[in-house]
Amino acid sequence: MSGPSRTDAQAGRVLLLAASPRVAPGLLSREAWRALDEADLRLASASDEPLALAVTAEGLALEATAATSADLLARELVTTAEQGRTVVWLGSADGDPGLHDALAAEVSARTSPPDIEVIVGSWDAQGARLLDAVAVMDRLRSPGGCPWDAEQTHESLLPYLHEEAEEVAEAISGLADGRTHPEDVREELGDVLLQVLFHARVAQEASDSPFDIDDVAGTLVAKLVRRHPHVFGDASASTPAEVEEQWERIKVAERVEKATSRSPSTTDG
User: Among 12, 37, 244, 190, which Cα is nearest to 29's?
Assistant: First the structure.
């Protein structure tokens, strides 16, 4: 794709750079870097935002806007482009609420408005919103967060884990006769996920054998791979019954290994 170009008789362009806050800010598409390199002006809400820092680290100058609202920002972007310049707006981490509507209003009020284009710099991978959930839990448990969340322990949270698991089961069982909806299952699963995040964060702060959410996920991945050798290895299991038999054999081997490497646990059986 060719980079931004114009003639003196043509208005410039407003390029809105959309990038996922869950992806390292420097990992942008080729199209995005080309647009940034060829732009007349690169504009950001603040020069110390992660994406802005990634751009300046590549030697590209940018300016921080003084606009205090979406309407003022839209007017600044369109007015700059009307001078025959190409301006790239580095989207803010909050998604710039109201900016698209404000730009539409600015453009509709002009007889020869500049072109406005969205350039996708990076995309969320599946599961990326889990990072948001981890960040929220971190905020709740950190100084200045929620005092109730901060004082919880594994033991105090245990009744909620039982309750949320039962509510998931109830929501799923109600799908068949219409007592519940898929949205109910989604919400209840989120409540169970909260308990997983909560317990992992409590464990992360423990002084004795701490672990965090990445350790929990890593242990799960290793277990799934180990117990599915017919998928991730060279074993053969073509029917559900064969898969269950294989699964049980692997579990027995795992219990034997645990018994020889550590003291017995109530979950070993």
Answer: 37
Alpha-carbon gap, residue 202 to 155, rounded angstroms: 10
d(CA 244, CA 115): 59
Continuous segment of H or E residues that includes residue 115: strand 115-120
Angle at 80 between CA 79 and CA 83, to 5 degrees: 90
Mean pLDDT of the region 47-53: 92
Q: In what order do the strands lie in the sheet with 115-120?
A: 63-64, 41-44, 86-90, 13-18, 115-120
Say how far apart CA 43 and CA 14 lie, in whole Å: 10
CB 50 within 8 A of CB 70: no
Q: What is the pLDDT of residues 88-109, one digit of tens each?
A: 999 887 888 999 999 999 999 9
Question: Token digits for 168?
Answer: 């998931």
- For a pLDDT cut of 90, what percent of the chain falls above it? 76
Torsion of CA 122, 128, 129, 135, to 10 degrees: -100
- What is the value of pTM for the model shown? 0.69
Q: What CA–CA distance (Å, rounded) separates 195 from 209?
A: 20
Q: CA-CA distance, 169 to 38, in Å (whole number)?
A: 55
Query: Which of 98, 65, 87 shows the shortest CA–CA distance to 14?
Result: 87
